[in-house]
């Protein structure tokens, strides 16, 4: 079941939330909960709306003002939207990384330069011996 589906009339939503229908109308006017409307302008509440009404009741019982509740709900909704967007972007990035042909790998060249190496390619390293002598070193 889609939690955002507008399935409850105001009396059913009020009963599920443990509130009076007039309270739901007031919260709608204040913008705390915004139920969808039928073509005849009747309110239809979703399960998400009912859960939000329950949260409003808890916050109100804890002494939070209606303006404070409105702000808390607004921020919670924004966090949920952003979390959903992050999950979408993470999925898109993972798909892109898996499907990208010829991913680029970099290595250090012999002269210290950065070179691009095709995935799965092994670099040939010179097997010559280099003797290091410090400049201005001690003479024996």
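^ Assign residues to that structure.
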């Amino acid at each position: 079941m889609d939690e955002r589906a507008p399935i409850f009339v105001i009396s059913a939503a009020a009963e599920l939330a443990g509130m009076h229908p007039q309270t739901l109308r007031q919260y709608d006017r204040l913008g705390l909960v915004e139920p969808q409307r039928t073509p005849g302008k009747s309110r239809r509440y979703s399960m998400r709306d009912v859960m939000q009404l329950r949260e409003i009741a808890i916050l109100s019982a804890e002494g939070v003002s209606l303006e404070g509740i409105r702000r808390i709900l607004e921020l919670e909704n924004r966090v949920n939207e952003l979390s959903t967007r992050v999950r979408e972007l993470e999925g898109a990035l993972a798909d892109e990384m898996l499907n990208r042909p010829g991913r680029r790998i970099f290595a250090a060249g012999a002269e210290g330069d950065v070179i691009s190496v095709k995935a799965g390619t092994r670099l040939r390293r010179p097997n010559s011996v280099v003797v290091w002598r410090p400049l201005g070193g001690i003479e024996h």
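The chain has a mean pLDDT of 86.
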